[in-house]
Amino acid sequence: MDTQRKKGVLDVCVLSVLQRGPSYGYMIIGEVSKCIEISESTLYPLLKRLENAGCLTTYKKDYNGRVRKYYQITDTGLQRINEFLDEWEEMKSIYQFVHENAKTDTVE
Q: For the Transcription regulator PadR N-terminal domain, which residue ranges apply (predicted)?
């Protein structure tokens, strides 16, 4: 998948996990990995970017003697998901157009 397209999709995948409730990095990776590959080195900069954009907030909580950072979606993050879903309808139309017009034989 194209890197820029994947980046935008990953943002929405992470936000959709957080839409179910606050979560932490390892759990987010586990959930998102069910549909698209993601690593820690990709997730944490993505989370920071989403936080800077106002799409999520963070808080820390003790867990088994360690401090764990949790991420929580904001109204801006929810709006981002809705915008993606609206854009998806347009993308489906574009995909259908390209699919219908694509030649199945080789280019001359």
A: 14-82
User: What is the rounded distance in angstroms from the CA atom of residue 16 to the CA atom of residue 6?
Assistant: 15
Amino acid at 54: G
Instruction: Say if residue 107 is exposed, middle or buried (CB neighbours under 10 Å; 0-12, 13-18, 19+).
Output: exposed
Tokens describing residue 96: 């259908």
What domains are defined for the chain?
3-101 (1.10.10.10)
What percentage of the chain exceeds 90 in pLDDT? 69
* Helix, strand, coil shares, percent, the chain, to 5: 60, 15, 25
